[in-house]
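[Structure tokenization] protein backbone as discrete codes
[Encoding] learned vocabulary of local backbone shapes
[Protein] chain in single-letter code, fold in tokens
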Amino acid sequence: MPLFPPRMSQERRIPRLPWFVLLLPAFLFSAASGVSAQEPEPQSMRADPDHVRIWNGFVDDAYQLHLQQLRDHPVRTESRLGGYAPGTSAGPEFYREVSYYDEASDRLLSRIRWENGEIHSIHGIQVFLHHDDGRVAVEYTATYLPEFRNAPIQTIVNLHHRTGDLRAFRQFDASGSRLYEQCRGTHEGESVWVEAEFFPVPDELRDTDLYQRCFANLDESPGNRLDPLHASNRVRQWPAYVPASRAELDRLIEQYDRQIPVTPLRGDLWVKRGDAYFLRGDFDRAIADYEAALDIDEALDGAWFGRGMALARKGKIREGIEDMNVYLERNPECSLGYTKRGIRYLWLGKPERAEADFREALRIDPNNAEAHSDLGVVLAQRQDYEAAVEHMEAAVRNDPTYQKAYHNLAMVHYLQDRPDKAMEAVDSALEIAPYARDSLMLKGEILKAVGEDDAARELQEAASTLPRRDWSERVPLTTQP
């Protein structure tokens, strides 16, 4: 066990450490040029389905945490190209590294290395949780090899603590194994560096005053912090990545078409391609991919969730709810899961069951805009308009881009004979989606209510030529079929 004496007259150089320590606490953000000396040597990894699922799931959850931080903070970004030595298969411009900073505090929230030439393919990710004073509390890191992407080659959870001038961290991997710990700084005027990489730590070290001063406030295990979403009520953006165009979506599917034959037992790739097919509206192919994923590993919760979404979109609403039931049994604190199941109960004509799910979603996450809006729909349908308005206003407050919530709010004001408020809300809906047929038709009804029949007729005639929308996950109140 490499360990420097508890006290030393000057800081000592760290000895040679194993590969998983050489990349800590940040995985590879030191080279100013962004070009490493050589491409990492491919390392074989035993095809353990649990390991593959857990470590790839860790990356997915770290990315979800990154998305949540972007939603919670205005950010600025810095980016640079980087890679490996010329002549290697990866090359010197293999990735684009983007650093995301909180614009107000300038705290580093996350860094992601995106592979150049691939859509939404993460080479490495690092996400930070901070104390209120700005110090890093928990750090999540994962990296893939340029090839052989069956699972990340490295996953790290670093727990940080500072006592006076001593800065310590304790490190685990995504499976919960304790890897390393280090403490550096100044104690009683002397520079110190204490580290350990074999556990349990021998009593003669653990019982020293300096070791206790360094590490006593760091937990022996990561606990729920092993999960990057432990503090987020598992609120997810689903799908995690929504391409900006149909062409980009097609390219993403082509990318999965190339990747899946290389690692056919990576169930998470089948799930992700299923999500992409869902976005394209190809529900049959989505369902087939989700079922292929479940054939590989029934513990892939994303496959149960995705198949539940797709089955309901095919009109098999009860079957979709059954899959959602499985997902929620395994993820009972997922606000999004209750929201989506509640929508399916609405489609099934069971508003009481829907209301129960929306309220549970809001218990878990009071800021869930979709659950607020859809609960407002249930309340409006039973003519509890004041309560409906409260929830719809909460929806647009929590998500000012939520077009359907503005539409629903306008509808409730219209039903309460409040044309001014109804017009304000429907105009907000149309600012977001100028060609939304249902909102244009509703605006026509509001214009009729204030005596502007000619303008209403002209608007509704123009709106009638627009295509009707397919089913939406965001449930609208409408004025006509």
About this structure: Residues 178 and 199 are 7 Å apart (CA to CA). The chain is about 45% helix and 15% strand.
